[in-house]
Amino acid sequence: MINFEPSGFKVKSGNFITGFRFLFTIYEEFNMANVPEYFGSDVFNESVMKERLPKATYKALKKTIDNGDPLDIEVANIVANAMKDWAVEKGCTHYTHWFQPMTGLTAEKLDSFISPTEDGHVIMEFSGKELVKGEPDASSFPSGGLRATFEARGYTAWDPTSYAFIKEKALCIPTAFCSYNGEALDKKTPLLRSMEAINKSALRILKLFGSDATRVTANVGPEQEYFLVDREMYAKREDLILAGRSLYGAPAPKGQELEDHYFGTIKTRVQAYMKDLDEQLWKLGIYAKTKHNEVAPAQHELAPIYGTTNIATDHNQLTMEIMKRTARKHGFKCLLHEKPFAGINGSGKHNNWSISTNTGVNLLDPGKTPAENAQFLLFLTAVIKAVNDYQDILRASVASAGNDHRLGANEAPPAIISIFLGDELTGVLDAIVNGVKYEDKRVEMEIGVDVLPHFPKDTTDRNRTSPFAFTGNKFEFRMPGSKLSVAGPNTVLNTIVADVLDQFADELEKADNFQDALDDLIKRTIKENQNIIFNGNGYSDEWPVEAEKRGLLNLKSTPEAVPTFLAQKNVDVFSKYGVYTEAELQSRVEILLDEYCKTLNIEALTMIDMAKKEILPAAAKYIKDIAKTAELAKSCGAETVFEEETVKEISALVTEMYKALGTLEADVQKVHSIEDTQEMANYFHDTIFADMGALRVPADKIETLVGKDYWPYPTYSDLLFYVK
Fold this sequence. Notes:
724 residues, alpha+beta, Ubiquitin-like (UB roll), six-stranded mixed beta sheet, 20 strands, disordered N terminus
C-alpha cells in the first residue's frame, strides 16, 4: 500500500532523484495492480502476432503451430522482422536461441540485431534464417559419446509452438538443439517427438469412438518446491555453494514436528519475494497460480495452471531461473536441490499429467458415471498398462544423485512405482473384472454449517505416499525432484502411453464387434495389471515386501535405475516412435551416470575440504581453550568435570572423524583407476557415499558440543529459522 499522506512523501527541495524514485514506485505499484493488462507483456504471443503480422502470414504461422506444417522462408522473414520490431520497441538489442541441453539447465548465446551500413552506421536487422536456425558450439555440451570432442558444429531449430519472449532485454526464441548429424543433444527434441507420438496413437482410438478431434495434446502442470535461505549465511557454507546441499549439519532443536509451517502465514520478507516473482512470471505469460509455505521450515511451493507439455516445460525452466534471479534481489538464495537439509522434507516437483483433444475433451475425465464411460476407461487402462509395462524407465526418468536422498525417505514416494486410483475407481475396475454391476457409493457430505450447501463427497481421496496417483481428471507423478527438467519424465509418459494405445488400436480396428472387443480388452487389461494398483501406505515396512511379491521393481538408486533405458523392450519402444535412437539412449545413460559420478565426487571433495579447513581446526581450538580453562580451574581448587568430560568426548569424535576422513580420501583416489562409467557409478554409490555418511556422523556430533562462537559456519537453526 502506498502512503499518500504528507508524512509518506518527504522530498526535500533539490532532492530530485529521491522524488523521482518515489514517483516511479507509485507508478510501478499502480501499474502492477492491473495484472490482466501486463500479463504476457514480454511474450510474442498470439495477440501480438495478430496485431503485427499480415493476415496471410499469421494464417501460415498458425498452420505451422497447430498442424506442424513447414514454414516458408518468406513467411519466416516477415515473422522475424515483426519479432525484431516488437523486441526493439521494448528495449532489446540482442536475440538468442534459448535451448535446453542435457545439463538440465537452459543455454543461450546472445547476438545483436545490429548490421553495418556503408556509411559507417548500423541498422537493426533480423532475418527468417536467423529466426529458424542457429549454430552454437555443440562441443561444450554433454553428448554422451554421440560426437567426438573436436566436433563442434550444432544446430538450434525454432520451436514455433512455444512463444518467443523477452528476458533481460534480449529476445529469447525457444528452440530444439541437435548435432551436425541430427542427433538430439537436448531434452526438448525427444519431448516434441513423444508429443507427436501420443497425438497419432490417441487419434486412432478416438476415431473408433466417432470423435471429430483432429489433435490430441499432452498437458502438464508442474508444482515447484524450493527453499529460501539468507544469502549472507549461504555464502558462509562451502557445501551449499559447491554442492547445493548441506553435507554437514546437526538437526536444529526444532524441525517440522509441530506442523506449523505448511500453509502457515507467509513471512513478510518471503511475501515480498513471492510478489516480485509472480510479477516477473506473469509478464512472461507464465500462469503462476498458487503459492504457499511447504512442510519444512524455509520451504515453499509455487504451482502454475496447466499447459501444453512443451510450453509447460519451457515455463518451468524459466520459472527456476527467475526464482533464483529474483531471490538475489531480496537477499535470499533459492535452493532447488532435492534434499538441501538432512532430517526435514526435501523438495519435489509433482508432475500433473493428462491428455486432451482440440475439441476440449479431457480424456482422463471420468465424467459423472465412470463405470459407463467406455472411452475414459480405455484411456485409463492404457495408462495403467503403460506404467506397469515400463515402470523401469519411468523410475529412471527421475533418477539423480539428489533425488536418491528423497525417494523412500517418508517424505516422498518410495522408489517402487505403483498407481493410486482411490476407492471409487478401484471399485469400478473390480466390478468390471468380476463381471458385476458397480454400485455407486457416492454420498452427500454433511459439513455441519446450515448456511453452506451440501456437496457430493469426493470418494477419491489423495495419497501422498503414491508415486503415480489419479486425482480426478489427471495423474500426479510425484517422483520428480525439484530441480529436474520435466521434459524427461513426460517424454517417457507420452511414449509409453502411445505404445499401449497403438496396441489397443491394433486389436480394436480388426474386431468384428467393436463393443464386445472393447469390453473384453478393458476387462483383460485391468485383470492383467492389477498388481500395479496400490491404494495403501507406501511408507509402510510391509509395502516393499508386498511389492516384491507382485513383481514390482524397487530400483533404489540412480546406478540401478538408469541402465534400464537400454533394456531391449525400452530401446524398441523409443525407436518405434522415433523418440530416441539407440545411440541417443546410450548417450543419455552415459550422461546421467557421468553426472551422478561428478556430483558425488564434488560432494566428497567438498566434505574433505570442510573437514580439514573448518571443522577439525574449530574442534581443536575449542579443545585447547577448554583444556586451558580446566587447568586454571584446577589451580583454584575448582571442579573440572565438565571440561574434562567435554575434552574426552570431543577428542574421541575428532579421532573418529579423522579416521573416516582418511578412508574417504583414500577411496576417492581409487576412482581415477576406474574407466567404465557404470562401474564408477556403482563404486560411488556403494563406497564413496557410505564413506561420506561415516564422516558426517562424528562431525555433526562435534557441532552439538563445540561452542557457537567456535563453529565455522551457520547451523541449521540459523539457516532455517533466521528469515523473518
